[in-house]
Amino acid sequence: MEELGYFYRDTWAEVDLDCIADNVISVRKHLPKQVNIIAVVKANAYGHGDAQVAKVALEAGANYLAVAFMDEAIALRNKGINAPILVLGATRPEDAPVAAKFALTLTVFQKEWLEEALNHIKMDERISLHIKVDTGMGRIGVRTPSELSAIEQIIGKDERFHLEGIYTHFATADELDVTYFQQQLSLFEKMISGLAERPRLVHSSNSAAAIRFPGAYFNAVRIGIAMYGLTPSIEMEKEIPFPLKEAFSLRSRLVHVKKLEKGEKVSYGATYESNAEEWIGTIPIGYADGWIRKLNGQEVLVDGKRSPIVGRICMDQCMIRLPYYVPVGTTVTLIGAQKDQFLSVNEIAAKLETINYEVPCIIANRIPRLYKRGGQIVDLKNALLNN
Ligand SMILES: Cc1ncc(COP(=O)(O)O)c(C=O)c1O
């Protein structure tokens, strides 16, 4: 255990890197050869582990990485990841030299940003840029051909800037109604047709569009959720032409097991009362781990049987009604497979009335991530640091 990064509480997440690799390979096969895959590993790779996922995705056929913030990109560099990294979100203009230092690609969408950044970038520094076009997401990006051309001109005039790419982001690519998607796509095509010169990379598709719409490939796609084995939306589940393999599991172990008599209570507020004689187990995971109180009543797997969480979820612990007596130390699966049962991320998302994207992201850093390859837990942390 020591060499796997020892931890003192029996709750952990397992990230199956073979699933990540297989998902990237499936996406790769689905796309024409010339289309680059930008693996989206922001937010600690949607809670799965940034460098571990990045490394496997690159080995499996991704050519580029994307994160939301420069801090995330620097963290990857510090873990030995040398592949090109695009920062999708906004960066302060005075921090542009940091991008040069770490060889990061920044997203730009304001001419004032470029003017200000030039006050900070030394003459011998070079910064790679992608222009973001807002075609209807309403988040960041240029909205008019004149804004776009002003930006293109400023970049073209200064050799400290290199325009490597241009992109947009779809708001509804995962919905069955394609009207708004088509509008965004046409607007993007119109915007890029007004460029004096096309940069090397043109991209618009997230996982949903990369799976569904060949007309939106251009020459790169940004793949996030599908790489983790999750469907972009329940609506488009049936449209996915290859299997997606869920990489994330969450497990704990019973730290206490007791028999309650009929009418005894459990947890804060004493809201749960046993109906009869019941076996109740305690697991060391709670709302401070992202296993929030709304998950009261959610089932978990014990000895391959669905067993409900009873009583209010506490900060660090919660209680479950066991199917029968099982000993302290028994593994409890909160997400993932156990025996012939499977508890999907989608099931947890439905209980939380949210999307599957949110589930692994909100599982706190307090829960260690263990990595699996070939069905075995492996120690990748040291391997990555020694890279
Ligand atoms: C700009 C941008 N591109 C791509 C992605 C990846 O999207 P998905 O996870 O749906 O593939 C995201 C994710 O939110 C994003 O914000």
Automatic annotation (TrEMBL):
<keyword id="KW-0413">Isomerase</keyword>
<feature type="modified residue" description="N6-(pyridoxal phosphate)lysine">
    <location>
        <position position="42"/>
    </location>
</feature>
<dbReference type="GO" id="GO:0030170">
    <property type="term" value="F:pyridoxal phosphate binding"/>
</dbReference>
<dbReference type="Pfam" id="PF01168">
    <property type="entry name" value="Ala_racemase_N"/>
</dbReference>
<comment type="pathway">
    <text>Amino-acid biosynthesis; D-alanine biosynthesis; D-alanine from L-alanine: step 1/1.</text>
</comment>
<dbReference type="Pfam" id="PF00842">
    <property type="entry name" value="Ala_racemase_C"/>
</dbReference>
<dbReference type="GO" id="GO:0030632">
    <property type="term" value="P:D-alanine biosynthetic process"/>
</dbReference>
<dbReference type="InterPro" id="IPR000821">
    <property type="entry name" value="Ala_racemase"/>
</dbReference>
<feature type="active site" description="Proton acceptor; specific for L-alanine">
    <location>
        <position position="268"/>
    </location>
</feature>
<dbReference type="InterPro" id="IPR029066">
    <property type="entry name" value="PLP-binding_barrel"/>
</dbReference>
<comment type="similarity">
    <text>Belongs to the alanine racemase family.</text>
</comment>
<dbReference type="InterPro" id="IPR001608">
    <property type="entry name" value="Ala_racemase_N"/>
</dbReference>
<keyword id="KW-0663">Pyridoxal phosphate</keyword>
<feature type="active site" description="Proton acceptor; specific for D-alanine">
    <location>
        <position position="42"/>
    </location>
</feature>
<feature type="binding site">
    <location>
        <position position="139"/>
    </location>
    <ligand>
        <name>substrate</name>
    </ligand>
</feature>
<dbReference type="GO" id="GO:0005829">
    <property type="term" value="C:cytosol"/>
</dbReference>
<protein>
    <recommendedName>
        <fullName>Alanine racemase</fullName>
        <ecNumber>5.1.1.1</ecNumber>
    </recommendedName>
</protein>
<dbReference type="InterPro" id="IPR009006">
    <property type="entry name" value="Ala_racemase/Decarboxylase_C"/>
</dbReference>
<dbReference type="GO" id="GO:0009252">
    <property type="term" value="P:peptidoglycan biosynthetic process"/>
</dbReference>
<feature type="binding site">
    <location>
        <position position="315"/>
    </location>
    <ligand>
        <name>substrate</name>
    </ligand>
</feature>
<dbReference type="InterPro" id="IPR020622">
    <property type="entry name" value="Ala_racemase_pyridoxalP-BS"/>
</dbReference>
<feature type="domain" description="Alanine racemase C-terminal">
    <location>
        <begin position="247"/>
        <end position="372"/>
    </location>
</feature>
<comment type="function">
    <text>Catalyzes the interconversion of L-alanine and D-alanine. May also act on other amino acids.</text>
</comment>
<dbReference type="GO" id="GO:0008784">
    <property type="term" value="F:alanine racemase activity"/>
</dbReference>
<dbReference type="InterPro" id="IPR011079">
    <property type="entry name" value="Ala_racemase_C"/>
</dbReference>
